[in-house]
Every structure is written in C-alpha cells, then in structure tokens.
Backbone:
C-alpha cells in the first residue's frame, strides 16, 4: 500500500470548526458527558501541543493535549485523538500520536495520561495506571486510565486527583 501524502501541522484557531465537526462525526453527542471532556472543557487544550493531519487540503485527523495536574505534578491529558472514518486504520492516528508525544517530550513535558484502549496505546508507551493511584473528577473505567512517561521514572511517586491547570 502506498503511504498517504500526509501533512501534520500545529492546530490553529482556523481549524476549530472543522475539528468540531470531526469530533461530532466520530464521537457523537455522548462526548460531552465523558469525564475527560469535562476536564478539557474547564481548561482548554494547549494549541502548541495539538496537531492536525491533512491529505492535501482535507483535514483527516486531529490530536489535542491539555495541561493538567495529577495532585501537584504537572502532566498532559491526551485526547481526543480522532481520524475521519474513511481514513482510519491506515496509520494516521499513529503518526499524530508519535508527533504529539515527540513535541511534548521536546518541550520538557514528563507525563501524559489518557482514557483509552490499552491494546492500542501500549505501542506508544502507555500502560494502565495502578488502581486508585490517579483519580479523575468523574466516572472512568480504571482499566482505561493510562499513563506514559516521556522521561523514564517520571510517574514514580505520582498520585492524586487530575485537575486542569494553566
């Protein structure tokens, strides 16, 4: 299979409407009730750590990172990661993930958490958070709460409630 001519760029305000429509198509109205959405809603995502994927001029994917704290430890919340349905399963999500995590690491961030499927995200260095070590301000399946260390050992001794930070 030929690799798609994909371009990844920092998200801009001009992308907001297209990304909102993409989230609506891929996640539906239930996205507003999710705990991770509630955290992002209070804080807003970090534009310099959020990226779009395009094939030509068509936006086909997006990933966002939001500054949070776990207790008193700074971290990032990843998500949503979304790809247009016709473009799923061709590596766009993986390329967005790798790019976002690389930039976060380069900017000195140490930890990223997300709520997602461990079998998918494990290849990017995410692992399940031990039960009760990190809590969110709403319901979340503890088996889907994942963390990645961008710096080895960064999660050692970290615990507490996730909250938005600026």
Residues:
């Amino acid at each position: 299979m030929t690799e798609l001519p994909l371009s990844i760029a920092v998200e801009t305000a001009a992308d907001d409407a297209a990304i909102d429509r993409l989230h609506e198509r891929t996640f539906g109205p239930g996205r507003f009730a999710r705990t991770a959405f509630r955290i992002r809603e209070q804080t807003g995502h970090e534009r310099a750590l959020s990226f779009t994927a395009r094939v030509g001029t068509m936006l086909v994917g997006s990933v966002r990172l939001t500054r949070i704290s776990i207790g008193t430890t700074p971290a990032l919340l990843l998500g949503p990661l979304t790809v247009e349905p016709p473009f799923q399963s061709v590596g766009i999500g993986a390329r967005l993930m790798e790019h976002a995590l690389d930039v976060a690491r380069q900017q000195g961030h140490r930890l990223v958490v997300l709520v997602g499927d461990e079998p998918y995200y494990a290849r990017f260095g995410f692992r399940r958070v031990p039960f009760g070590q990190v809590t969110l301000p709403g319901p979340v399946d503890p088996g889907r709460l994942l963390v990645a260390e961008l710096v080895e050992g960064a999660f050692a001794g970290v615990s507490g409630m996730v909250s938005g930070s600026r």
Strands lie at 6-10, 51-55, 58-70, 73-83, 111-115, 127-128, 134-135, 145-149, 160-164. The chain has a mean pLDDT of 89. The chain is about 25% helix and 30% strand. Helices lie at 16-27, 35-43, 92-106, 118-121.
